[in-house]
Amino acid sequence: MTDDLAELESASRRLADSVRRLIDATIRTQVDAAALVEVSHAIDFATEELSAAMMPSSFGVQATEDGRPMAWGNVMIGLRNAVAPPLVVNRGSDSAVWSDFALGAAYEGPPGLVHGGVCAMVLDHVLGATAHEPGRAAFTGTLRIRFLRGTPLGELRAQAHVDRVEGAKTFAVGHLADARGVTVEADGVFIHPREQTPGG
Amino acid sequence: MTDDLAELESASRRLADSVRRLIDATIRTQVDAAALVEVSHAIDFATEELSAAMMPSSFGVQATEDGRPMAWGNVMIGLRNAVAPPLVVNRGSDSAVWSDFALGAAYEGPPGLVHGGVCAMVLDHVLGATAHEPGRAAFTGTLRIRFLRGTPLGELRAQAHVDRVEGAKTFAVGHLADARGVTVEADGVFIHPREQTPGG
After folding, report:
1. pLDDT at position A1
2. Which residues contact residue A177 at a Cβ distance below 8 angstroms, ignoring those fewer than 6 apart?
3. CA-nearest residue of chain A to B109?
4. Are the Cβ atoms of A18 and B34 closer than 8 angstroms?
5. Is A7 on the interface with B (CB under 8 A)?
6. Which residues of A45-66 are buried (b: 16+ CB within 10 A; e: fewer)?
7. How far is A136 from chain B (nearest CA, A)?
8. pLDDT (tens digit per residue) in B174-185
């Protein structure tokens, strides 16, 4: 990685972290309406600064000079995307993958609990990661989710492994867990397309 | 609604909209590292202003003086949550529900496409909405998602209806579509718990 790219990556990470804290504060603040409007003006000014030079569409997957793919805008792993927790997916020696992460107020559904849809989103990504290969993304074919109990906001782990492979199809199973154990189970079929098609 | 609450709601909505535009610009900007760091400082300052008075945990579901529930922090519908598109769920005369919304760069998975996990998240919420009643939330029991093709970023509709009800269980079906037609299908079982349990 060139020094310039390393510097840009570090500054991008710092900015996304700042925006994550802002999202959390926007939800939880108890300051009055006048103060909220004042902060809105400051945010709009910051957005204008960033808009001085913008790519015309979404980030996509860009390549570094040495061909490394950068998915900086990805909603689950993108280091520039403040919506992403972001997930860091670890890979074991076999097909196992796992990710430890924390979900705060921005991911809430029922009071104190992670929204069921967020659980599904994380599991889609982590199960799909068992099938991803560098430069050869896998797309979700089907996904089944079983909710065993509520998932509390806080520290969580998602993990998955390959159950079997049939041609272009990878069958993966996994779960989401808190310190007390499994909260949500999932299985899914992930497909390596000949060309780009469906949606994971 | 009291004037004070209406004013707070309006200012909250404005701030979350500003933060959404900031999230998008953070992903798509092409300004240099020094400018990113400068903007980070401005964001941190704004977060400090909001942190002058903060609720100790997540927003949860708070009640207005007249007993109306406010899920302002909800990751899918919360008007204070910049992660939420936010969805506005419409209800037909029968069990049908639908939501028209746009997903931008912050929801990307494969280049130009909505992340499959985001599709699952939206469908969980919209199918679940068929079973929700005021003051009586339904939790996701199981959810099955079938991806037919990639879902492009942009204008989308999610819709769902009740297939049948068996005791505390509501069986819902639905889909996500773009202007060309259905991209993702889903069915799920949603449960009205006696007490608070699982996770939608």
Report:
1. 56
2. A156, A157, A158, A159, A183
3. A74
4. no
5. yes
6. ebbeebeeeeeeebbbbeeeee
7. 11
8. 999 999 999 999
Contact state of B10 with A33 under an 8 Å Cβ cutoff:
yes
Q: Which residues of B touch A82 (CB under 8 A)?
A: 23, 26, 106
Instruction: Give the pLDDT of residue B193.
Output: 79
Which residues in chain A touch residue B26, judged by CB atoms under 8 angstroms apart?
Answer: 12, 15-16, 19, 50, 80-82
Contact flag A18-B25 (C-beta cutoff 8 Å): no
CB pairs under 8 A between A and B: 390
Q: Helix, strand, or coil here: A99?
A: strand
Question: Is the Cβ pair B38, A49 closer than 8 Å?
Answer: yes
- Structure confidence at residue A135 as a pLDDT band (50, 70, 90): low
CA pair distance B155, B151, nearest whole angstrom: 10
Per the structure block, which two tokens stand in for B81?
A: 């949550």
Hey, what long-range contacts does B42-46 have (CB within 8 A, 24 or more apart)?
A: B42/A42, B42/A45, B42/A46, B42/A49, B43/A15, B43/A18, B43/A19, B43/A21, B43/A22, B43/A43, B43/A46, B44/A18, B44/A21, B45/A42, B46/A22, B46/A39, B46/A42, B46/A43, B46/A46
Strand A62-63 versus strand B97-103 pairing type: unpaired
CB neighbour burial string for A11-41, b if at least 16 within 10 angstroms, e if fewer: bbbbbbbbbbbbbbbbbbbebebebbbebbe
The phi-psi region of residue A128 (left if phi > 0; otherwise alpha if psi is between -120 and 50; otherwise beta) is: alpha
Cβ under 8 Å to A: B residues 81-120: 81-83, 104-120
Q: What confidence tier does B197 reach under pLDDT thresholds 50, 70, 90? A: very low
pLDDT in tens, A42-63: 999 999 999 999 999 999 998 8
Average the pLDDT over B18-25 and give the result: 98
